[in-house]
Amino acid sequence: MTILEEIEGVVGKKGLIIGDDVFNRKAGIWIDDGIKADAIIRPKDTKELSKVLSICNKFDQKVIPHGGLTGLAEGAITQKGQIAISSERMTSIEEVDEIGRTITVQAGVPLEKVQEEAEKYNLMLPVDLGARGSCTIGGNISTNAGGNMVIKYGMMRDSVLGLEAVLADGQIITSMNKMLKNNSGYDLKQLFIGTEGTLGFVTRAVLRLREKPTSINTVLLALDSFDEVIECLKYMDKGLGGNLSAYEVMWRNFYEVVTSSNSNHNPPLPLNYSYYVIVETLGADQDKDTALFEELLEVALDGGIIKDAVIPQSETERSKLWSIRDDVEQHYKDGPVKMFDVSMPISFMEKYVQEVNANFSAHWNEYKCVVFGHVGDGNLHIIGGVGSNEGEATELMEACIYEPLKSIKGAVSAEHGIGLEKKNYLEISRSETEISLMRNLKKALDPKNILNPGKIFD
Ligand SMILES: Cc1cc2nc3c(=O)[nH]c(=O)nc-3n(C[C@H](O)[C@H](O)[C@H](O)COP(=O)(O)OP(=O)(O)OC[C@H]3O[C@@H](n4cnc5c(N)ncnc54)[C@H](O)[C@@H]3O)c2cc1C
């Protein structure tokens, strides 16, 4: 029997996609090409996946885990000769535990479905990102996704209490812990969080839910200097007593393009400031929280920390503000660009951005270097454009952005992962001994190197 015949015996015709149907599926949300692989396998549960992986292991067949394919680090890219395994049929929400405040789901459930389910119980999964409708819980766990509320609730890792994963040889590791505290030996779930499908295929998870906040306050601020950006972050965080949930900064060049006459957004604040910041709080008492929020803003305006502010007066106005921050695609309109995701201690940010700009201008007369990000989390996104998005131009752009991270001990990936895209730069952020331990873990768990091979490191 061929490998695909054996696999079909496990998953049936419904669970197997072959021939042109493979390439007819897009390789990623922002990738125009189709999927290049010999087959896409769609197991319906952990048991089926376990059997599929033990067959693949027997045949030394390379396999690539697929979630919603919204990843931004080429972690789910396949080649001819490889097989993709998709979680798209593992979409059941198994349980909501209102008392323990947990939700148990299969890995293929889209993030947004989990958010909606939690809301029915007045609870919240505190992980949110622009790709919420398409990305999956398995993908969020495997990339340790970040998003817009990290400053208050942490990254995906902080919302995973337990999980189940299948190892390369088909062994099932069920570690569906529901408690906040469990120090009984190694915390094995961490092996599968943020490891981009290289150590195991996540099949199910127990996620921690929080009480749904009943108050929300948002403001768009204008500031003149990066020192004020830092001062304002500390001031608001201190004054808000734990309620600060977002501190999203747009450099002027980001704000200018997104609110230009070619877009659908009107600038809520004039264009003459250096930085624009969306500050948001989540709490439990709207009247009290709003009074405190507005008082803090008034004092900051009087004291000159902030130069201008606009508070949305309705949910529609609030989502308009956020849509400015989220409309990254405006920067993709004229010419090829590439998005970067890096992190560093906040105190180094201004100097880092200056250095990146200096690097760009040393190589190109005309270039785009648009900056925005989750500054409260130390995370910047940079959109670089130099007229070409390939070969040498990309490598040079990468050097301009990654090299300055060395001296400040920054990270080449803040929240998107390493995948194929950044593996050449991993050693900027991780020592030789760290990478060697990563390799040893990989060898121990996947000695035949069949699971997502070549991602993160060779
Ligand atoms: C518009 C937009 C906005 C975004 N905003 C953010 C943001 O704010 N923060 C952020 O962190 N990311 C963001 N992303 C990136 C992306 O949505 C996340 O990385 C997301 O977690 C990927 O989930 P996915 O299901 O699409 O995974 P995929 O893209 O399918 O896979 C990503 C990686 O995980 C592996 N994988 C997938 N499923 C499994 C599984 N079940 N078991 C083991 N490995 C698996 C894949 O092999 C691959 O290495 C954004 C993307 C877009 C398009």
Count all strands and give the number.
20
The CATH architecture of the largest domain is 2-Layer Sandwich
| CATH secondary-structure class of the largest domain | Alpha Beta
- Strand percentage lies at 15-25%
Give the strand line-up of the largest sheet: 17-14-16-15-19-20-18
Structural summary, described in words:
The protein has 458 residues and is α+β, with helices and mostly antiparallel strands. It folds into four domains: 86 residues, Uridine Diphospho-n-acetylenolpyruvylglucosamine Reductase, domain 2; 119 residues, Uridine Diphospho-n-acetylenolpyruvylglucosamine Reductase, domain 3; 115 residues, Alpha-Beta Plaits; 103 residues, Alpha-Beta Plaits (2-Layer Sandwich), CATH 3.30.70. It has 15 helices and 20 strands. A seven-stranded antiparallel β-sheet has the order 17-14-16-15-19-20-18, with helices on both faces. Strands 7-8-12-10-11 form a five-stranded antiparallel β-sheet. Strands 1-4-6-5 form a four-stranded mixed β-sheet. Helix 7 packs antiparallel against helix 9 and helix 11 packs antiparallel against helix 12. The two termini are 31 Å apart. The mean pLDDT is 96. Flavin-adenine dinucleotide binds next to strand 5, helix 5 and strand 12.
